[in-house]
Amino acid sequence: MKCRRLIALAVTMAMGAAVSGCAADAGTTKAKAACATGPVTVGYLPKLGTDPYMTTIRDGANDAANLIGGEVFYTAPSEATGAAQIAYVNQLIAQKVGAIVISGSDLNGAAAALKKARQAGITVISVDSDVASDARSLFINQAKSDELGSKMLDSMAELIGGKGEFAVLSSTETAVNQNAWIKDMKARLASDPKLKDMKLVTVAYGQEKADVNAQKAKSLVQAYPNLKGIIVPAGIGLPAAAEALSQTGDLGRVKLTGLAPATFIKKYVHSGDVQDIWWNVRDLGRLSYYAAQALAQCKLDAKPGQKFSAGDLGTFTVGANGEVILGPAVVVTPENVEDFAF
User: Where do you find CATH 3.40.50.2300 in the chain?
Assistant: First the structure.
């Protein structure tokens, strides 16, 4: 009897080991299967689908897809909130895309859904505006965040002669990239003696809508009669503010700078009343697509210091916290405004 028990125990242990071995093999197989053998469908999820900045990123991604294969699927909510993006992340999971490229409306709003996507074997990266770092592999940034905040502040200083009151007209209270730029601006204002005569009077929000930005710009001018300038770090907001203040006759007395498609504000740049900090947005879309495909196909694992090729854009290096920088932004002036196709 004792012998039979020992034999049964040995058989049970052997079966357990066999099952354990099968589980290990299955895990290995699953990990290997997660590496795509060729180009995948990449789902692009912006803050708002109608934002021309985001549609230009999409167009750049399509350019890259035409060169290296795969497909771009573009979907977006009608409200610029992280919560609104959740349903669209789930949609992309259900469609079994190979990668998701998201421009986060906030850091954590869609983080749980993005983690779910990663658990399903979908590559997740952010572009333009980051999400929680544990919810994605890479952040494809147009330029270094502290560089952009500093350039906008320097541009404002140049426009108003380094003296006077100015405001910031941001997009939403939760916009990750814009909050980072504003934080950097405030830090420099407090520490840089060259900016000691400049005063940030308020931060307002245009909610990623042209009409709201136009009204907010007018309200700022009325609320602060000594206002000399407004920084608008939002692609929709800067053209809307420029047009609104042009109509009221305040543009010129109040200078504007920020981020926007150069072609949308060309006439105001030529007049000297507006400056712009910009880059090639289509290239940002191309770079994000190359990065998404490289990750999905396990040609890249997002470790700092790793390099990857993005076609004729060149070779890029993964930085700290998975950040990849497209390149330095430039100040758009009357002298170079015609160099920008968007």
Answer: 41-142+281-326, 145-278
Tokens 């290990």, located at residue? 24
- SS3 category, 286: helix
Report pLDDT for 187.
Answer: 95
**Residue 26: per-residue pLDDT:** 30
Query: Which pLDDT tens digit goes with each residue over 187-224?
Result: 999 999 999 999 999 999 999 899 999 999 999 999 99
Q: How far is CA 159 from CA 248, 304, 333, in A?
A: 20, 38, 11
CA dist., res. 45 & res. 47, Å (int)? 7
- pTM above threshold 0.90: no
How many of the other CB atoms lie within 10 Å of CB of 285?
A: 29
CA distance linking residue 92 with residue 85, whole number of Å: 11
Q: How many residues does this entry show for the chain? A: 342
Position of tokens 């950040």? 323
d(CA 83, CA 85): 5
Residue 152 to residue 35: CA distance in whole angstroms:
41
Q: The domain 41-142+281-326: what is its CATH number?
A: 3.40.50.2300
- Per DSSP, helices labelled H in the chain are 2-33, 52-68, 82-94, 111-119, 145-159, 176-191, 210-223, 237-248, 266-271, 281-296
User: Alpha-carbon distance 304 to 137, whole Å?
Assistant: 11
* Torsional class of 208: left (φ above 0), alpha (ψ -120 to 50), beta (otherwise): left
CATH class of 145-278: alpha beta
C-alpha distances out from residue 107 to 178, 204, 313, 316, Å: 12, 20, 28, 24
Distance CA 239, CA 225 (A): 22
- Give the burial string for 312-331 (b: 16+ CB within 10 Å, else e): ebeebebbeebbbbbbebbb
Contact 131, 117 (CB under 8 A): no
